[in-house]
Specification:
The protein is α+β, with helices and mostly antiparallel strands. The chain has a single domain, classed as Nonspecific Lipid-transfer Protein, Chain A (2-Layer Sandwich), CATH 3.30.1050. Helix content is 30%, strand content 20%.
Amino acid sequence: MVDFLSDAWFESLNDTLGKAKPIPGRKPEAVFRIVLEFADAPKTVPHALTFTIEAKRAVVTPGDHFFADTLVRLSYADGIALFKGEFDSATALREGRIKVRGDINAMVPMLNWFQSSHPHASERPSEPDVISEDPA
């Protein structure tokens, strides 16, 4: 089990994504980027990750991307829950725990593809010793 947002976590996820089937309905030249931002992430891990989705492949990289199509902001704890498969996005949206900017309609089919094609993509990350840092 690897720590969420560690180098090993990104490597494992990208290995799984590299073995994925092509994304249905994507034009060969189409590129879609989703940034997940964790404003309260510890300083020891990236504050964001970027999914870059193309017709034949998808990769995830640490950090954000200036030309993202969609930006999703959520807490670090909710990010851990999301990648463990324990996150209820409908409830989180209703409660205001998720903020989305950009093309949410294009993002939903991509997330559905990801979840259905890669049920073990994230291999339940272990929780780090520190979830958030003391602001003092």
